[in-house]
Amino acid sequence: MENGGRIKLGPFGLNRYFPVGGFCTTIVERYQVLQEGIERARNHYKINFTPDQVIVIGDTLKDIEAARKIGARVIAVATGGNTYEELLAKEPDLLLANFTNDRLFFSLLD
C-alpha cells in the first residue's frame, strides 16, 4: 500500500517531506497503521514522537476517526471517497478541497 500512498503524494511533490509513514501492509485497524507509522518515524529520526506530535493526512472519515483514536491532529483532503461536507462534519483540524494550496497545507505545521 505504500506505493499507492506515494502515488497520491507524488504529483504534488510531497514525498520528499515524508521519508517514512504508516502504510497498511496487512489487514489491521486503521489506527494500528498510524501507530506503525509513528514507530517508523521514531526509528528513522531517533526521536520519541508522541501521538499529539503527529499529523495524519487522510481523505476518508475512517482516517479522521483513526487519528482521533490515537490522539493525533488530522488534515483531511476531499480527494477520496468522502465529500468535503462529510469530512467537515468530523471536524478535522484542517480540511482542504485538494492539495493545490500548499501554503494552507503547511499552516498546520507551524
TrEMBL record:
Organism superkingdom: Bacteria
SUPFAM superfamilies assigned: HAD-like
Protein name: HAD hydrolase-like protein
Organism: Effusibacillus consociatus
